[in-house]
């Protein structure tokens, strides 16, 4: 592990920035290939992520901010943060807050049922 960090410490910030951008591009391609089922590069993806973390650490130690394009984390889509699951939880939470109490709902349902019966029989409801 120390060898990898030493390798990056020997580079100047411009070279580290370039390496960071290249690694981000490789990660993007690997994730795309994995999603298409063309290859399973889990190990390569893991090493690229670790390499990226090492580069960012060395840049921070040197007191140099990485360029915005290289430092921006790439968005990964996981099962936990899929588009389908997030809205459901938000809708459920909003429904709990806005839902009327059960007693009110039951009373309204009973009143509606009584009105329907009265309308069917031709009598006026209370």
What does this protein structure show overall?
The protein is mainly α and 126 residues long. The radius of gyration is 29 Å and the shape is elongated. It is 72% helix and 0% strand. The mean pLDDT is 74. It has helices at residues 2-9, 13-36, 42-62, 68-71, 85-98, 102-121. The protein starts with a helix and ends in a 5-residue tail after the last helix.
Continuous helix count: 6
Poorly predicted runs of 5 or more residues:
none
> What is the typical, i.e. mean, pLDDT?
74
**Tally of discrete structural domains:** 2
**How would you describe the shape?**
elongated
- Structural class comes to mainly alpha
Number of strands: 0
CATH architecture of the largest domain: Orthogonal Bundle
Q: How much of the sequence is in beta strands?
A: under 5%
Order of SSEs, N→C? HHHHHH
Task: Please write the CATH class name of the largest domain.
Answer: Mainly Alpha
Biggest sheet record: none
Fraction of residues in helices? over 70%
Specify Rg, calculated over alpha carbons.
Answer: 29 Å
CATH fold call of the largest domain: Helix Hairpins
Question: Can you summarize this structure?
Answer:
By secondary structure, the chain is an all-alpha fold.
